[in-house]
Description:
There is one protein chain. This protein is α/β, with parallel strands linked by helices. The protein is built from 11 helices and 10 strands. The radius of gyration is 22 Å and the shape is globular. The structure holds iron/sulfur cluster (SF4). Iron/sulfur cluster binds next to helix 10. Residues 162, 164, 206, 211, 214-215, 218-219, 302-303, 305-306 line the site of iron/sulfur cluster.
Amino acid sequence: MVKKELASGEPCEKCAQAEAMLRRRGQWEHIDEVVWAVERDPSSPGARLAARYGVTLAPFFVVRGDDGEERIFTSALRLARECLPATAKPSRTPILPADAPETDLAALARRYAGAAPEEILRFGLERYGERCGIAFRGAEDVVLIDMATRTGLSFHVFTVDTGRFHEETYVVLEEVGRRYGVTVRTYLPDAEEVGNLVGRKGPNSFYRDGHEECCRIRRFDPLRRALHECAAWVTAKRRDAQHEPGFELPVLQQDPTFRGADGHLVRLNPLATWTRARVWEYIREHDVPYNALHDCGYPTIGCQPCTRPTGGAHGERAARWWWETSEIPGVLHESGDGV
Length: 339
Ligand code: SF4
């Protein structure tokens, strides 16, 4: 493993995180040697290795196979998944075994109601593995990806790209892929439907006749396709971000709107009881990548034309579709669903 030492003498934080992740997974013992690349010292052993292999990122790993062939990894997670024996044990005992009967999701939800998000997530990942999808777009979603990665269990990440995102969203999307070693599956709207809508009404019809039609085409239909691949999905919904006071949001539920390939779909809402402040505490604590627009007063980030900065003064709901005065209940109005 090649780690970077900053000019200040401090170790690079990402390198420390990579080591911590490998230790948590019980795979650190398979790292034979740590070599340091000292910032601004091209003669340091790690810097020489970086030059030799043409690598500009830290940390990176050189893996030598039995046949002497060398492979370079710039993602610790990819190394862990592809090259190192999976010896990790769950760090915490789940409240229920992952193979507990699924006959009564409401009962499961009650059992998990007071559980930490990590435990709820672990339950979903142990049970559904790769068929459990984490929907990605916002800061809360990255918190969930960070937690999921720490379990060492399988899952997948997907996003619905409406075609109207801010550039900053694409930047963080790539950063998340790099940081966590995941490939984000991208679902796009149907090009013909978008063409028809734009041809008939122009690109910004939502300002005149409401966002439902555009959201159905650009968000809702691709999301339906994405979820058709899942047995369970993880949302970043929080009770405190929903419309109606006292809104009930179980931490586990049968999805009320969407169906998976086998006709059922479990929805996990591990952050249901968290507040926005707690989410940001986690982001700072764990150095989770987030969209730069949050630093510009955007409490939530959706499509560029339909999201605005409110500086936190009016909450998350006022930041989207603000020109629509009436509140119409429904899935398309919910925030924090990651799409
Ligand atoms: Fe269209 Fe706005 Fe909905 Fe995005 S949020 S799909 S731009 S109406």
